[in-house]
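Hi R.,

Here's the chain you asked about this morning:
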Amino acid sequence: MGLMETFVAAGDLHGDRQDAQAVSAFKKFVKEFDPKLRIFLGDIWDFRAIREGASKTEKFHSMEADFKAGMEFLEWYKPAVITLGNHDQRLWDLGGEGRRQEIRPAD
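And here is the predicted structure, written out as tokens:
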């Protein structure tokens, strides 16, 4: 049997809707566990402003604040693997068919 690698997976951050207490506990865990592989499972952002059927109030929610909160987490977490969730997909859907691009946190 080969050596086992450690990993951690996170998902459903939802940008500026993240649970600060849960994120703080997760960061503490990751620091102590020191996994070799970090995976993000989707819904980095909430993007409620561009949700199909969004209310007038939701349409005025800041996508900038939402995007910034998600990117700040990714820049800290530095996942090796990112999958997009249905909330993240909303942004790609605005770009039309076949417009997916790679997301990379700053080095």
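One quick note: The beta strands are 7-10, 37-40, 81-82.

Cheers,
M.
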